[in-house]
Amino acid sequence: MGMRRISVLLLTLLAIMPGAIPTWAAQPVRARHGMVVSRETHATQAGLKVLESGGNAIDAAVAVGFALAVTHSSAGNLGGGGFMLVRLADGRTAFIDFRERAPESATHDMYLDANGKLTRDSLTGYRASGVPGTVAGLEYAAKHFGKQPWAELVQPAIELAAKGFPLSYAQANGLRGGGLNAFPESKRIFQRDGNFYEPGDVFVQPDLAKTLARIAQSGSQDFYHGETARLLAADMQAHNGTITLADLEAYKAIERKPLTGHYRGYDIVTAPPPSSGGVGILQMLGVLEGTGFEKGGAGSAEVVHYMTEAMRRFFADRNQWMGDPDFVKVPVAGMLNPEYIKKLRASIDPVRSTPSSEVKPGVFTGPESFETTHFTVADDEGNIASMTYTLNGGYGSKVTATGLGFLLNNEMDDFTAKPGEANMFGLVQGEANAIAPRKTPLSSMTPTIVLKDGKPFLALGSPGGATIINSVLEVMVNVIDFNMNVQDAVNWPRFHHQNLPDDVRVEPGYSPDTVAILEKNGYTVRRVGAQGEVAAIRFNNGWLEGAADPRTEGTAAGR
Ligand code: GLY
Q1: Is residue 17 part of a domain?
Q2: Do residues 486 and 539 lie in contact, with contact meaning Cβ atoms separated by under 8 Å?
Q3: 123 plus 181 within the same structural domain
Q4: What was the pLDDT predicted at 370?
């Protein structure tokens, strides 16, 4: 049979197989010996160079983390925090929690005015920040799981900051619209002589280069106990901020046991609390498995329906019960109990939407712009680092620490500032996530690794606040249930439901017919722009297939 006839046959088969996706539509980057997928090309290259010089995936991830702090100002950071999920070639796994913690002076009602109304202080300014964790987290990762000298991992970031790099169209536009003008130090750093940078302008950050050079020399000692700590605490004090030297000195990254579960014969290693993401992924996959949802085919109203109902039910539980496990009892076992999951599944009508007002969180008596960025790295020894970190909102609190050159987070907004009222992501949360001194705000960041027969199959994560969990879920389902190649799976249009508000938000790409069916079945459908920015690696018969997200400027590069 000639090639042409084979192609015609293949196309015909694909046309008649429900849910079949032409897998040549978009191609991932393929390599055999190492892969880096990140949001920004200089950072991707920094990670790749570390792999080429003999570093492992964790070394490369540390270099990418520092490089993004220079080249992806809205989310890459020294002044924020995040999670790194590690799987080593020998099968060991670790979850490094370097999320921001509330300062000692934080109180339950610190963002309420005298009338009990929410102030905007959790969003911008010196009172919006949790104690940053990134430097501690990257150092913990390098010390425990890396093999290259620390200073060499910080060096690419120092060079990018000192010599500068040309701003892309999106980066220049981001700085223009970033709301940084309100703070003189931010204006000084992120504009040139009072003018916005244009695309193609070389962006040099000498203050940040100096801070990074100190970190290269003395690591977290400098950031939490040394000159950087003193300058940051003094700047906070001068601006009625909340973070003190004692807060910085008390900061520690925490290694936690990753959460694990199963779906259709795959083993899933994912983020435990204080992330809500891993519990969400496992609960929603549990609800979906056994519904037959996949029969409708990717993009069908039936698939959107079942997945939305799983999302709606998970977010009801999340918002009621989840918080920092070191402060509140998070009912992880209850939320993942097979009997409970069965009940959730049974409560889904096969066609119609269940109004969120009718979905109550479970009762568990047993033990129990969103700008962020994710990158994924794999090396040829079989080590994987899947890391999500953030300033929370775009450019965080908009405050640049004076003389230090880095932005501070506004992660305090991830707490419940007032039970029952929505935060920046529209999440309506409860007391479990209320503010307390040294507490960690609940997160949705979901770095995840999927294994098949004990071997890596897929590693991924995304930014996007509450949408992170659903973006990760959808890409997993696209690969596992709809057999898409990883690039198609990442590119595929996404949707989101978070219980409240009771609407399903769909990206462009869902047809008017699909939307009409959903509306007929009781859904309020809201068309939105891009959701998330997944960075994924699929492990495929000795090939590493890297998929950056075309929604932004992500790149994948391999060796
Ligand atoms: N800052 C977003 C999150 O952690 O969910």
Answers
A1: no
A2: no
A3: yes
A4: 58
